[in-house]
Amino acid sequence: MATIKIHCLGILLLTLCLTCTKGSVKRSIDLSASHVLIPDIRLPTDVIPLDYELYIEPNLEEYTFTGVVKINFDKPTLFENITILRGDRMPRKTVYVLYLKETVKQGTEGLLEIPFEGGIWESAEGLFRGSYTNTATKETEEYLTTYMRPNNARRVFPCFDEPGIKVPFAVSIARPKEYTVLFNTPLERTLEHSTLKNYVIDHFEKTPAMSTFTFGFIISKLMKFEDAAINEKSPSAPKIQVWSNQIDKSELKEIHARLLTVYNTIQDYFNVSVPLKKIDVVAVPGLTTVRPSDNWGLLVLKESELLKKSYLSFAQELIYQWIGSWVTPYWWSDAHVNKALASFLASEIAIQIDGGVEFNGKYPMTLLYSLYYELSKRYPHSRITGMKQETVSFKTELVIRMLNFTLGKSTFHNGVRNFIADHHYKTFIGDDLWNMLTKQALSDKTLDGQYSITDIASSWITKDRLPVVNVQRNYETRSALLQQKVYLRERPHDVPEQDKMLWWIPITLNRQDTLNFSECKPYVWINKTRQINISNLPESNQFIIINHEEIGPFPVNYDERNWNMLSNFLQTESGRTLIPTLTRAKLLHDAWNLAYAGDLSFATAFNMTLFMKFERNHIVWNPVFTFIDHIGRHIDMSAVHKKFEAYVTTLLAPLYEELGPENTPEEYWRTDLRSLAKTFLCRAGYRPCIEEAQKAYKVWQQSSDPDYENPVPNQYICPVFKWGSIEEWEFGLQRVIQFPKSRVQSERTYLLKTLAGCPSQPEKINRLLDLTILQQNINFTENDIFLIFSMLTGGSSGYTTLFNFLSEHWVAIRERFANKTNLWDSLISSATGVFSTQKGYDMVKKLYEEHPGEFGSAQHIIEKSLRNIKEEAQWSDQNLPVIEKWLDNYLSQNNEKNQK
Hints:
Blueprint: E1 3-5, E2 16-18, E3 49-59, E4 64-73, E5 84-89, E6 96-100, E7 110-119, E8 126-133, E9 140-147, E10 169-176, E11 180-183, E12 187-192, E13 199-204, E14 217-220, E15 223-225, H1 228-232, E16 239-244, H2 249-270, E17 278-284, E18 293-295, E19 298-302, H3 303-307, H4 311-318, E20 328-329, H5 335-354, H6 365-375, H7 385-406, H8 409-421, E21 427-428, H9 430-444, H10 453-461, E22 467-474, E23 479-486, E24 504-507, E25 509-511, E26 524-527, E27 531-534, E28 544-546, E29 556-558, H11 560-570, H12 573-578, H13 581-597, H14 602-607, H15 618-634, H16 640-659, H17 668-684, H18 687-701, H19 714-723, H20 726-737, H21 745-757, H22 762-774, H23 782-792, H24 796-808, H25 810-816, H26 821-832, H27 838-850, H28 859-899
Parallel strand pairs: 1-7, 2-6, 3-10, 16-17, 17-19, 20-21, 22-29
Antiparallel strand pairs: 3-4, 4-7, 5-6, 8-9, 9-14, 10-13, 11-14, 12-13, 15-16, 18-19, 22-23, 23-27, 24-26, 25-28
Helix pairs in contact: 2-4, 2-5, 4-5, 5-7, 6-7, 7-8, 8-9, 13-15, 15-17, 16-17, 16-28, 17-19, 18-19, 20-21, 21-23, 22-24, 23-26, 24-26, 26-28, 27-28
């Protein structure tokens, strides 16, 4: 076998592209759904590796490494004694190109041998280092480990760094004798180093075929824990070993048992074990990676994550041993399908083990609601690519959840099993999963023969939007017209081409005369058409519910009559018992957000909250706090806001009083619900809450050394700054000014945020603005001023006071920020961009007209503010009278009841 040797200097050699003719071969693809860091170049398929032989020798003293990689090439490529004309790195690409003198022959194999060297990183990219304190010796210990996702293997050694190229690795790694190396596979043998006295070389068993991004190792002094008795109970599972920094053995035993439980549950789900002898789970104190490094057979995660002992976290990492490592996406454009499937199945595994206790009712609602808010904006993601990647994965996960329900759990389960079985050691594209589910569904007759899961899934995944289904019942004919359109919450609703957006939508139907929330089979599909009619509905005095339990990721709007029947039913004890928790939460959430979007009367939305005086489930309460926040901020400047705060107090006070004082221990949901209720009651001016906060705050005021100790819980500080005296607020201001450098600076940041964002009295805000802007107090940085501007946008008292301060001191401020365009732009945006009424529009327009040509870099900002305020003012003109009328009626009735 012929050998080509080429020495490549420096860490700039990151991946390898070979060509058999002059020049390089490129292939561009659409990366719109892939990772933000993935380049737009693909390696040609002329040459593909058969396997790697890799030797790595780190230098822990100099933080460098050297090594040699031997890449064996598959037929039909031949490398004889070929002359290499030159080697070049592609400009601005992590690709190295070899230019050969002649075209190689076909028919045999070849070998490429490349020495390499590089530097060890401090950030979590490729091969990096870190340190921790040994709990036993109290000494600082260093470690080296890898993070290869998504394309960081090229930072460590020359390779074909694409997920679709899966080959075995034969690896040996040098290490100091006092350290341990863990790799994807078990240790085979250890030999003395030929030249370095204190070093040995570990040789590891050859890996199964795998992608470069699942390659990984760690060199450390962490200690191993293994409960042999537990491992023996699972002979078909790989040996699971936990490595840690001397964590208590009883804790490690529980962690080890939970890991085995999770592994066995996943194995049962897939009906197959991964082809590995061992899985090392390594807990590293202070690990700097954003997420665990889930290499095949080697999981490296933060010690804090391990100590949570979370079934969900363990499932999310272990499931990647099947989906991601053994079965791998062909290219990063399908990574969102891999992540979504793994995340959904991990949630199912966790629920299967503990009934969903860990979720505390937040799955899928929290995930779904955040998706509703993001995708209903005029400009989703604010064009932030990284956020878009997460949104695509979340949305795909919810589509997978929808298919699990609508196809039936048995069909979905068998389809996934067949998908895994068909792709052992292979790669897949998204359509492979959808096609397998289609095949299984057609076999089980859970999907109409003319439908395709590929078509259904793509209608959801390829759009940065979600639909809303409007239901208009005809009570005389017992039928209904169902129409789909783009769900838009943020005004104006002028999204381009929204009329062309259509989805495949499963319509699950529940009717009052035959309520059955366990039935998830679609009554009908809206098969990418604008509207359909359904018939055989119940009598006119009975409601219907569509998309119960949030089976599909879309809100539903009904005619006013159906909404009112739902409201009345939920106010009965039997109604709240018959309609399950997630559906009650959905109905409440849909009504409020549709009203906010302008698609439903606020009177109807408020009616949907009437049953909350009887509701005590925290899952149903969660959306209530969201709409109190959203609506409260929107109407903050209007006269209606005081009435809204009275409504909030009436709504929340009974709940807060019933929850009572905090007990230890108690269920997490009670603590969470009590905290939220207190926060919003304090914000609304609930006297018992304010008095409690002032009492706690007084302890701090009387402290002998207030700059070095703060005994006040954070939850009490904002109510005092909002409703307390100017003296109490001034005390907090002095603590910021005199904040010691020795204390944690995040505490100062929190204090400054509350000083600016909480007060309702203009004199407090004016004092802060005068100190920081006009007096230019040296204790406040430019970042502090940015933070103050941002916090003032949170309420009308803040941004109105900021606007008035700007108007009154225009000349001085303009001079102060003459060379600070970022601060000036931030000021104009914060002072003018949040108004939502005609009065606010008139104020901003007057400022604009009084200072023509003086806004400089912020000219476009104030012009945008005027456009937005005009839109919001129309919303206020339309909705505030409706809200005020409902609140007047509600508060009047409530007062009458209290008097009786």
